[in-house]
Specification:
It comes from Flavobacterium jejuense. Belongs to the alkaline phosphatase family. InterPro entries: AIM6_PI-PLC-like_dom (IPR039559), Alkaline_phosphatase (IPR001952), Alkaline_phosphatase_core_sf (IPR017850), PLC-like_Pdiesterase_TIM-brl (IPR017946). It contains 19 helices and 24 strands. With about 600 residues, it is α/β, with parallel strands linked by helices. The chain has 2 domains: about 250 residues, TIM Barrel (Alpha-Beta Barrel), CATH 3.20.20.190; about 325 residues, 3-Layer(aba) Sandwich (Alkaline Phosphatase, subunit A). It has a 10-stranded mixed beta sheet with strand order 15-16-14-13-17-11-18-23-12-24, sandwiched between helices. Strands 1, 2, 3, 4, 5, 6, 7, 8 and 9 form a 9-stranded mixed beta sheet that branches. It has a 3-stranded antiparallel beta sheet with strand order 10-21-20. Strand 1, helix 2 and strand 2 form a beta-alpha-beta unit. It is elongated, with a radius of gyration of 31 Å.
């Protein structure tokens, strides 16, 4: 094999050495696409298939003689476009293998292919373009008789001579020989084991002058669905055959961001249920809000956390509707205001009604009734959700005014990020560590998790949310007065907007650690009601696949924004059963006041 072709192999397959699970996309029957070649090329396909049939000395792009359409030849559909790619330097250093599936007699057709390719020296000398003959091919012993730029698709697992292996670019087999799977559900165990053995055998073949660490392999006739694509990626198939190159390539390329193997775990606490659902007086309320934490987000955290969370131990469960006063899909400001004030308002509003008038919120009502109050968030303390519990501004973007509202508020405690937004801290004593929170005797304290944005769990925040929650509960208990505390796990939403599964799962599990501290406190302190909900769902999150043993989640997304779906609400402690059912988000406020026997 010549040095020129060795160089081609190096550039075309060098990336395959990096990972045995590197997968490329093969545009199957590409000539039948609405726009042949360009559709697959622009999608980023590395392998493109064209069927050819030799008739009257013309090489048509067609499946059979009967399907010939005049003018549709391998030249004008593939070789001329490839020439444009080379001459105009299109693509981002994209390696292309043109798999030519011969449907007419092998030897005469291949002679014609070579004759035509000689007209395109820029292509046959290009180290990023390869030509692979499939379908009707010469006998393996004859492979050596063809030019260096011609290689073959070997469609068997039977051994051949080393000389023949030199000319083999990949092994292809009919999927139907090994499985009848249609791409829905999962491969049955026996068929999966058979396919794994086939791939292993194909990858085991050695050949001279190769630069990948395995023989390259594909199936043809495969099911063409997301489930199937993921299966073939996991099995180590090198080229996935598809009739949907754009969708398949986008799916495969996005897998590293959408598949997360969890390594952050929440130790599940089993509640005592001693006071749960009892009709006893409530003194303390802990409201935990998972921003963007819809049912699927909760499911992903649960399944990645060995199948269980503290929150999933609870018995009082309902769903709330999240629509704002002016939109089907709420933002955090309107949703936070509905939870904090009992009144729906327009998106972006912080503690004001639809006319911009201030609404009294639950912390202000509690303070008038001799409750201590506080807010905790992994967002900036001026973020929309925490702000709804102390501020009154017509727009969530008024961060300076919101910060001033915080300093003027009667809150006893605030914790979050965004220290750089404050020039002074009013009457609040700013503490330097979570431990100082529980030890403080001051009536008004604050703790900043960061000067600017708070880090995510995977960025180094560790267990800070649970730690500050636990210390804050000690702080409030020492005051020997009833209290209301809002705790927000804000970054489930942030990672939802980024469509980043690792963040959604890790932040959801981290949020459960704060839930655990609240439930433990409720068990140890009679009269404590814990409520856990979300302000809205973010990203239209779905979890089509995963692996419980590996703590692995594959996520999918319909948007990078919020959605209008219902979100779950859990409660624990006295009167927790009153939060069951399906209702509007602003009803949470009224239920809390009713249970506390407080009025506006």
């Amino acid at each position: 094999m010549s040095k020129v072709y060795n160089v081609f192999l190096f550039f075309l397959f060098a990336n395959l050495v990096v990972s045995q699970n590197t997968t490329y996309v093969h545009s199957h029957n590409d000539y039948s696409q609405a726009v042949p070649f360009w559709n697959a090329f622009s999608a980023g396909a590395n392998s493109i298939e064209v069927d050819v049939f030799l008739k009257n000395n013309t090489l048509y792009a067609t499946h059979s003689k009967a399907d010939i359409i005049e003018g549709r030849t391998i030249e004008n559909l593939y070789l001329e476009p490839l020439q444009k790619v080379v001459s105009l330097k299109l693509g981002d250093n994209q390696n292309i293998q043109l798999l030519i599936d011969v449907k007419s007699e092998a030897y005469k057709t291949l002679d014609k292919i070579i004759e035509i390719l000689k007209k395109y020296p820029d292509l046959i000398k290009n180290n990023k373009i390869g030509f692979i003959i499939s379908g009707n091919r010469p006998k393996p012993d004859d492979y050596k008789n063809y030019p260096e730029y011609i290689t073959f698709d070997y469609q068997s697992l039977d051994p051949i001579s080393d000389e023949a292996w030199e000319k083999v670019a990949l092994i292809s087999l009919d999927f139907a020989q090994f499985s009848s799977w249609n791409g829905k559900g999962r491969l049955i165990k026996e068929e999966k084991e058979k396919i794994i053995a086939v791939i292993k055998t194909a990858h085991s073949y050695k050949k001279p002058f190769r630069f990948s660490n395995k023989m390259l392999f594909r199936f043809w006739g495969t099911p063409d669905s997301k489930t199937a694509w993921k299966c073939f990626v996991d099995l180590g198939v090198d080229f996935i055959c598809t009739d949907h190159p754009f969708a398949c390539i986008n799916y495969v390329k996005s897998l590293p961001q959408r598949v997360y193997t969890n390594q952050v775990f929440s130790e599940v606490y089993t509640p005592s249920f001693q006071y749960d659902q009892k009709s006893k007086p409530v003194k303390n309320v802990i409201l935990l809000i998972g921003d963007g934490n819809g049912l699927t987000q909760l499911s992903s955290a649960t399944l990645a956390n060995k199948g269980s969370l503290t929150i999933t131990q609870l018995k009082s469960i309902g769903f709330i509707k999240t629509q704002s006063a002016d939109d089907f899909t709420t933002d955090s400001a309107a949703a936070g205001t509905a939870l904090a004030t009992g009144q729906k308002t327009y998106n972006r509003a912080i503690g004001v009604d639809t006319y911009g008038n201030p609404l009294i919120n639950i912390t202000e009502i509690a303070q008038k009734n001799h409750f201590k109050t506080g807010i905790i968030t992994t967002d900036d303390v001026t973020g929309a959700t925490p702000a709804a519990f102390y501020a009154h501004q017509k727009d969530r973007g008024e961060e300076y005014k919101i910060a001033q509202d915080l300093l003027k508020s009667n809150l006893n405690l605030f914790i979050g990020g965004g220290k750089n937004q404050f020039k002074d801290f009013g009457n609040f004593e700013i503490l330097d560590s979570p431990k100082m929170i529980s030890e403080s005797k001051s009536n008004k304290i604050g703790f900043f998790m960061s000067d600017k944005a708070v880090l995510g769990v995977l960025e180094g925040r560790a267990n800070l949310l649970a730690e500050v929650t636990a210390n804050s509960l000690i702080y409030f208990k020492a005051k020997e007065q009833p209290f209301f505390l809002m705790v927000e796990g804000a970054q489930i939403d942030s990672y939802g907007h980024m469509n980043k599964v690792s963040g959604i799962v890790s932040e959801g599990i981290d949020f459960d650690k704060a839930v655990t501290e609240a439930i433990k406190f409720a068990d140890a302190n009679e009269g404590t009601l814990v409520i856990i909900t979300a302000d809205h769902e973010t990203s239209g999150f779905s979890i089509p696949q995963g692996d419980l043993k590996k703590h692995q989640i594959e996520g999918g997304f319909t948007t990078q924004d919020h959605t209008g779906t219902l979100v779950p609400i859990f409660a624990y402690g006295p009167h927790s059963d009153e939060f069951a059912g399906v209702y509007e988000n602003n009803e949470v406020f009224h239920k809390i006041l009713s249970i506390l026997k407080l009025s506006k």
